[in-house]
Input
Amino acid sequence: WQTENGANMIAPLPGVVSTKPGSAQRPLPGISVDVVDDKGEHIGKNQAGYLVITEPWPSMLRGVYGDDQRYKDTYWSRFENMYFAGDGARFDDDGDIWFL
Output
């Protein structure tokens, strides 16, 4: 959860997937995420990288009141066309997300 996200983005779905202690699990329906390297390129499983959101989502913030450029500079400038809040992560062999 992050205020700017407006909702939970990654969580276990009880009854759908088995929970895995320590793992954030999977993106919720409608949320597209990836783990990328310093250049914004997708990296393989079990490799540390940066968690990004790759597509717009229903509850996304569209700006900061009185300073829309600040929002763009803070969350959308590190990787082109990807939202990045600063979290390190990796996908495991099952595709579950682990924050680092």
